[in-house]
Structure formats: structure tokens, C-alpha cells
Amino acid sequence: MSYASLSVKDLTSLVTRSGTGSTSSPKLPGQTRPVKVIPLQHPDTSDEARPPSIPFDDILSGWRAKIKRMSLVDWIETLFPCFRWIRSYRWDEYFKLDLMAGITVGVMLVPQAMSYAKLAGLPPIYGLYSSFVPIFVYAIFGSSRQLAIGPVALVSLLVSNALGGIADSSDEELHIELAILLALLVGILECIMGLLRLGWLIRFISHSVISGFTSASAIVIGLSQVKYFLGYNIARSSKIVPLVESIIAGADKFQWPPFLMGSLILVILQVMKHVGKAKKELQFLRAAAPLTGIVLGTTIAKVFHPPSISLVGEIPQGLPTFSFPRSFDHVKTLLPTSALITGVAILESVGIAKALAAKNRYELDSNSELFGLGVANILGSLFSAYPSTGSFSRSAVSNESEAKTGLSGLITGIIIGCSLLFLTPVFKYIPQCALAAIVISAVSGLVDYDEAIFLWRVDKRDFTLWTITSTTTLFFGIEIGVLVGVGFSLAFVIHESANPHIAVLGRLPGTTVYRNVKQYPEAYTYNGIVIVRIDAPIYFANISYIKDRLREYEVAVDKYTTKGPEVERISFVILEMSPVTHIDSSAVEALKELYQEYKARDIQLAISNPNKDVHMTIARSGMVELVGKEWYFVRVHDAVQVCLNCVQSSNLEDKKPSFLRRFGNNGSNNNSSSYTDLQTYNTLLKEPLLPVEK
Length: 694
Fold this sequence. Notes:
Helix content is 57%, strand content 5%. With 694 residues, the protein is mostly helical. The chain is elongated.
């Protein structure tokens, strides 16, 4: 293995701390050149220096500066993101694409909306209501140009589960009222999180948790729709055991006609979906699949009138009217579900929107997107809509249909409006099993077994998290599944933060580069010197772990290849702090205590390459003066050179007193020490920095 390294010319050009060049000393046998150390500039900690800023001050000052720079056009685009694409709209190029994409998504949405409303325990018309006003509102306030919003399977299941625990299934009016109230609460939460820019909170939930939760929910959704295939009612539950038990218990009521019709439509939907995905020229089949299933089922029901197949029945005709929620008695009960739906909106909708924005090369602010979804749900709730969010399948179809702007969403809304005005009389002949087949076809792709296989191969811990979340969701319900998954996800985050990666570094042969000795077995260490790199911020939660590991490394480094003079114990510990992005006051105090422990055992602490903020915190705490300015270095190699020379000097002179006392590094007497002081003690390496070229 070969490594890139500094040239001899580069090494000899390094200046000392005094800035006037290095002081050469008489060479001992075996030495080739004097040590040259890059000076480390310590920060100014005087009263005149800028005091440490509070993070909120920096955030507020950044906001104020941004607001001052904003023009009238910027304000309009911030409040109404649609103006960004309206100003640059190319009618001759974009309109045809937006028209086709809007029609395609609209044809797909009409049957899906009715199916998801049934899944939510609502009349099918409320699925269309939820696909009407929110789409128009989102086209104005939403940032994404391809995201297709409306009812989705997962949110519909959450709505059904929440309402089932409050109202009896026979009280349809209360169900509708609570669903509309839930949309209002979800919209308010989304707006608050968007305005306060709190979308980052969801980042703590692992992707494996989301995948496990979604997969388990898809299985529950599919089983809940089986009743329309079997021809008899089953228990209404979000747990798999009651569903399976009720399916088995009612097996004697099984009817063939709905099973055959539902299975036929499901097979057709799956075939059309997969053919549309596989062949680009036939991608329209994917969007047309739900409509095809509805048309086929309606035709069979209209022509043959099978008595055992239940139909949708009468659907009100006309657009939704304005109405305000009549009662807020159940707000407290609905808040947990509204928070969960908001989380799903952030993870699913905002994630899809950001991916589509990156693919189509335009910028999207996730907090602005969340605010747009909130406004759509608030105004939608005033027109009889239940919670809406972005749909993965419909957004994918919209993007594949090359939608360019939010105009495609407006066209989709117009199609929904026309359906409400003119087509509802036809909808009453739609078989329930056809709607169930659409739901099962849609959620079949949410069972992410490929992700589970990938996690098993790549990361067993994430696979465990996926398994725990999916299992608890299946057997204990949605709320418990989410809580357990999020709890384990946060526990893993906290564990990683409290137990950071720490590496012992060794020098790569022929270079001045120091790397993890476990990753690079050929790297060697020096006798009497331990070089440790901390790969995380240092704060109150992990400093105890770091101290314990540092104590272990005092006796554990002898297992690696070492060089240098033979010594009986560790005399130097070098902390490589370039990966450390932050250090708090508790950690600084703990490092001071560690330094005192080292000092009592005649071990010198050296610090290499702290960043600006970390260096400033250490300087303000007085630790620079405590350790000594001469023990802070720009490079690990500089620290090793100085420490190695001290070890060599101690060995050569064979004196009983500690070399630490020789240098007088007691903090109080050596605050003004410099690298030049160290060089007067013949700071010379016994071996050359680089191999001498023959």
C-alpha cells in the first residue's frame, strides 16, 4: 500500500511558533533534521473580545438580516409560493404536459378517494370532498410542483382507528364530524410546525422505524378490506389478531361472487400497475388501473345485478358547502392522532416533495411545504374534508407524466369538481369489493420486505428496529407501534451520542499521516505516547465514557506495533480534536480533572487541532493556561515530534526526576512557554520524518 506524503522541501519550510524560523541544535547520532512545528494561534479571551453568543441570538439575527434583504417580490413568493412558477410559466412548453398530468392523476384519484374514505369509516363522498378544496389550496400555498395531495391509505387507517375509539360505528354523523375536526387540528399543527420551523424534530425517527410501521400498517389495511371480498363483516381493529380471529370465525358465511369479482379486479390492477412501471411507453396503464377496476366492477354490477355483492349506494351530488366544526368536545382525545398524522405528513409528504424537487432541479423549503399542507387541511376542513396529505403513488404518476407546475394540481381539482357535479349518480353502482381491491392494490407496495432484506445485510441494528416496530404495530396497535418504534429510535440516537467512536491513531509508514490502527494495521505507534481521536462533540452525556476509554488506552496500546525508545509506561496522551465540533462546560471541567489525574501520574496531556469554537471554549475556561500553551498543536505530527523528543531526552539522560518536572509544566509557571523553549531542549526526532531517498 502506498501513501501520499509531504516532500522534504515542505517539511523544512515549516516555521516555528516564534515566526522567525527554527532553532537548529547540534545533532545527536541518528538524527537528520531539527523538528519544525507549525504555530497554533490561541484566541483572544480578554474582556474586549466578543463574548460567547447565545444560539437564539444568532438565529434571530440571521432572520432579521434575511428579512431586511427581502424585496416585495420575495415576500409575495414566500406567502404564495405559486408565484414562483407563475412568473416563469412557459405556456407553449408546459401547458400540454401539465394538462396531461392533471388529467392522469385526476382519473386515478377519483376511485382512490372513494376507496380511502371507506377505509376511514366514512361515506365515499367525503373522499372526493377531501380531494377537492385541499388540492386548490395547496396549488397556491404549496411549494412542490409535482406533489399530489389528497386522501392516502395510511392516514385513512389512522383516522379510522382514532374515530373507532371514540364513536360507535353506527353513529355515522359523529364519525363525519370528528373526521372533519381532525383535519382542522392536523392543519393547525402543521402550520405551527411550519412557522416555527420545527420539521427537524422528525429527523430523530429512523427510516427503519418508518418502513417497519408502514409495512405493518399496510398488512392491517389489507386485512381490514378483506371483508368486502369474503361477503361478511369482520372486527374493526388495528391489531392483526382480532382481524384474523374474526375472519376465521365467520368463514361459514363466505360468499363466492364478491370474492371472484374482487380477486379479478385486484389481478387486473396489479398487472396494469406492474406493466405501467416496467414499460415507459405504457405508463398510462398505471394511472388508468383504478378507473379500469371501477368501470369493470360497475359494468358487471349493472348488467348482472348479483344480489350478494354490496354496492356503494346513493352519493350526494354537488360541491361541498362551507361549514365550521360544530363541537370541540373531543379535541383533547384527537390530539395524539393529529400529532401522529402530522408526523406522517412530514415524513411522507415533505420527503416526497423534497425528492421530486431535487429531481426536477428547483429549491423547496420543507417548513414552507409543511405550512402549505397545513393551510390546505385547515381550509379543507371548512368544506367537509378529512385529513389530506401527499400520496406517494399519485405523486410518482404526476412526475412520470412530466408535470411541470402546480397547474397540474388545479386541473386535477377541476376533474374532482366535475365528478362531484355530474358523475355521482353513476357511482352508486360501484361494488364495494372493487373499492377494496383498489385499496389492497395500493397498499401492497407499502409492504417493504426489500428494505428488511437490505437492513439485514447492511445493519443488523436497524433490522432489529424495523422488526420491533412492525411487530408491535401488528400485535399491539398503531399508537403503541409508533411509540415503541420512536422510543427505540431515540434510545439508539442517545446511545450513539453517549458512547461516541474513539480511535487510537498510529502513523502510516513513510508519511506524517496518523490513522486508526484498527482500520490500518500497518500504522505504528510510539512507545510512551498514546494518540486518541474523539469522533463526536464532547458534552455532559459522553464525557464520562470518554474518560473511561482514555484510562483504558493507557494500558491497551501495547497490543499494536510500536517504535521509539523502550519505556516502561505511558508518558504522553495526545487528543486529536479536529472531529470535535462542540464542547460544553461540563466536558471542559471533566477534562481539567483528567489533566490533574494525568499530572499526578506524570502523564502530560497534549491537544491537537481544536476547531475555532472548541478552542475558544477551552481558552475561556482557563484550560489553555492550565495545560500550557506549548502543549497545543496544529497537527498530530507536531505533537508527536515534541512528545517523542521528550521521551528520548528522558531515556538518554537516564535521570530519576520526571521529565515533566524538568520542563516545569505546572500551569502557573509556564503560561508563556513557546515552541522555541522546547527547541532549546534539542527537540529532534531520532528517525527521519520521511525515508531518505536513495
